[in-house]
Amino acid sequence: MNITGQCHCGAIRFTATAQPERVFVCHCADCQVISGAPFRAVLPVPVDQVELQGVPKQYVKIAATGNRRVQAFCADCGTQLFATEADTPKTLNIRLGCINERAQLKPVLQVWRDSAMPWLHELDDVPAHRQGRDSPLAGNPSTPC
Ligand SMILES: [Zn+2]
Ligand SMILES: [Zn+2]
After folding, report:
1. Around 127, how many Cα atoms within 13 Å sit in the side-chain half-sphere?
2. Full-model pTM
């Protein structure tokens, strides 16, 4: 399928031809910290199938194994865009959150499940608002995030 995406401020945009059945979720501690979220979902796409407009800033993450991974993000708005091999990029693991078609991209695999937040599977039981937060317990209702 063809996908499109962009960072929050629009300085960086991309289009790609992707295989939707490759989406996975990573629960590792690095993904939690770097994404600022309980887990990260990505769609791996061969680098030659991605057309990128704009130049992301890069942070090279060194794993415990010594593996070096580029983490690419927008220097202006901070949106995370993709990760790839530090030396010779072959595959861009595009962050699901910046892909416009993300609702159609259901993960098929989870990795590092041992470090997943223990409450993830309980979210369906947590009170939910259809939009924003309208509970006085939730702080300023107009700026929830
Ligand atoms: Zn941006
Ligand atoms: Zn991870």
Report:
1. 6
2. 0.91
